[in-house]
Every structure is written in C-alpha cells, then in structure tokens.
Design goal:
The complex is a heterodimer. In chain A, 70% of the residues lie in helices and 0% in strands. By secondary structure, chain A is mainly alpha-helical. In chain A, helix 1 packs parallel to helix 3, helix 2 crosses helix 4 and helix 3 packs across helix 4. Helices cover 30% and strands 23% of the residues of chain B. Chain B has four helices and twelve strands. In chain B, a hairpin with a 6-residue loop joins strand 7 and strand 8. The longest helix of chain B has 39 residues. Classes of the chains: A mainly alpha, B alpha+beta.
Amino acid sequence: MNTLAQRHGGGIILLTVIAAFMLTTVPLPESLRALRPDWVLLVLIYWSMALPHRVGVGFAWLAGLCNDALTGLLLGQHALAYSIVIYLTLKLHQRLRLYPLWQQAISILVLLGLGQLLLLWINGMIGRPVHAWTYWLPSLLGGLLWPFLFLFLRGLRRGFRVT
Amino acid sequence: MVVFVLASVILMTVDHRQNHLDGLRSALSVALYPIQFLIDLPATAGSWLQDTFATRRTLQEENARLHAQHLLLEARLLKFEALEAENLRLRELLSSSFKAGDRVLIAELLSVDLDPYQHKVLLNKGERQHVYPGQPLLDAHGVMGQIVEVTPLTATAMLITDPAHALPVQVNRNGLRSIVVGTGSLAELSLPHIPNNADIRAGDLLVTSGLGGRFPPGYPVAEVTAVAVDPSQNFAKVTAQPLSHLDRSREVLLVWPPEPQTPPETAPEAQSAAPAPEANPPTADTAAPSSAAGTQAAPEPAPAAPTAPTPAATENEE
C-alpha cells in the first residue's frame, strides 16, 4: 500500500457532486419530471467504487442531507437511503469493478432500485404514498445511463489524476 | 454505518414531528442557494435579454395594450370602491366586525424543480421580506397555495393541488361551505364529504371562506367541473378545476391576511372608508381600507356570503 497516500483532486469530486445537484433541480417539462434519474446517487456510487478510501458512507450521508434540503423533502430521507446504498456499494465494490459494463449497469439498477424502495417506505410512513408505476422508471433510466456516466467520470478521474 | 442510519432516523423523526430543525434546514438552504440561483440564471437571463432587445414597436404596442387594460381596470375599480363603501356601511349598521385591507408583496418563482411527487414551488422572497410559514399565495387568477417553509433568502410554497393540502372554501352562489383537497393532478381538485342533496352544480365558483384564519375570505379558488351523485355512496363526487395558472405563473402575490378586528370603532374608519375618488390611495398599509390597498390586478374578491368570519380552529393543511 502507499505510505505516501497522495490526495489529489478532491475538487473534482466535489465539482461532480455539485453538477449532480444541479441536474437534480434543473427544471424539466412536467411530463419528464418523474423520469429524472437520481444523479447524485449515481455519481456517489461511481466515486465510492473508484475511490473507496476517500468517498465513504459519511460523504454519502452529507450529500443525502444536502439533497433533502435542496429538494424540500424531510431532512434525513435521502441521507438514510444514500448511506445504506453506498454502504452496500463499498462492500461489493471489488466485485463490481471486475464486471463488464453491461453487467455493472444491471447491478447499479438494483442498487438504485434499493434506494428508491427505501425512499418509498419512508414516504409511505409519513403519509405521502406514491401509487404510480412510473415511480420506478428513474432507476431503469439510471441503469441505462450508467455505462456512459461511468466512462465519462472515469475519463475525468484519469484526466485530472484524482486519487 | 449504524451511526449514520440512527442519525438519519432521528433527523427524520424530529423534522417530521417538530420544528426544531428549521435552523439546520435554513443553514443548508442558504449554503445551497448558489446552486439554485445558478439554475435559475438561464431563465432570468433569457427574459432579461428578451426585454433588453425588444424592438421599439413591440414596446409601443405593449404600452398601448397596457394603457387600455389599465383604463378598464380603473373603471371596474371605481365600481368596486363604491360597493365596498356600501358594504362597510351595511356592516356598521349590523354592528359586525370591520374588515381591514390586505397587504401584498409580489414575488417571483425560481425555475427550480423540487420533488416531482410533491407540488411545491420555490420563491425568491424569504425571511428578510417578512414572509412567514402559512402565508397565502395568490396569482392574478386565483389562490395558488401557501408557504410551508421559509429560509432567509427563499421560501417554499405548497400548491393547492398537492394531495396533502386542504383549503376551506364556499360556493359563491349560495354560501355552501366545504373544503377543497388536492389530488396530485395540476388540473383537478376534489371536494370530499359533500352530501348527495347539496346544492352545488358544475360551473359554480368556489371562493375562500376565511375559516381557519389562514386565507383571507373572498378570493377565487376553483370552478366546479363535475358533480357525480351516486345514491349508493355516502357522498357525492365533486371535482373542481383550479382557476390560478399553477403551471404557468411566474409572478405571484403573497398576502398578509387582515387582523381579526374587535367590534368597530366606527367613526374614524367610516370617515376614511367613504367613497373618496378624489383621495389618493395610500400605499400598502395593513390599517387602510382595502379599496386603497396598492394591489396590482388583484383578483376581484367576489361578494362573500354575509356572515362574519368566525376564527375557527380548523387546520388548512393535513
């Protein structure tokens, strides 16, 4: 292991997370709003897979909290969902990294679906149940977008030499 | 990880049940405001560019059109002032409470999307402008909703079509009181608990009744679209369409409802309320009669049913 563990490019990680926040709140036409994939979670999954020693459950928890404050939800909702999903990702990241991209996308779909399930439970408990089947489409879209996002972020990581 | 899970659960419970976390939420919102501002920037920049590069002819045409509209509105306002003075005199005769005017503030919606399953919008006015949670929100055509959260720089409002929102209304025609509940669809509201033999029909105008003390009475809310009476059910199924342009308005009005007044000190108010077309309307002031409130194109408060508003303890929001 590196004894001189360099920590480069924290700014890039932060920048991508902020870009994900912006994508989460950018206005979309009414019909497309329900289809928006969870950008913040996707970006967090990538970074926790690529740099597990740097992006961990704590970072995910904070990002979830910010997401709650940004979208006007109950504080702690996304924080909980993100912590659990990133925890699972950290446990599985070594296996996930070895999969081919399309198989990774399926696993990411499952992880996103898990995140959405947790949010659905929380929403049901506070009395805001969602009954539409279209609720699950964002996970599907997230899974489909994963290969592109992965390649893009990997390009960023290598380009800026983020460690 | 367990620490974080516990912390999240605690945060959620506290936020759901009590308001202790408002400070934290405000702090986070202020920290995240630059992001929201950046997202709103293209829309604002677009409309600014459009204004700056408008041709002279467009401006002249718009000017003429606004003049004509202004003239029409002033004419209607004269009649309204007379009606209102008459209303005040009649109230005085009946010794009922005096209704003061409404103070308003214009705000703009930030074009930022919040959670897609909740009908909430973000405004660019916050605590600094004395916005408070529970404050009613209107646009030029009707009631839009109420403020639910306030941070120093922004405020979040819940629209009347959110499934968790309920609003006390009355039918304009006959004063039948009811509650209108959001359904989750932007074009539909529902009135639960209307008996099968109630006198309500399609085309009726629903206005705020003022019960609950949150929304000032008399502002239009919705128009009834369908009344389905089924004798086998306990209640009739009534749906209404909101009058305000919930998905199109960008400029909105925040209203401060009038304070409930004690039985009137009639002489000074009666003097100032006398139809005075020669007097200059004073600027927006809570004590001024509503004929003089500096509102711009406020929706015409329809003549409310002649009952004094009772400060009932009903909640607007579930």
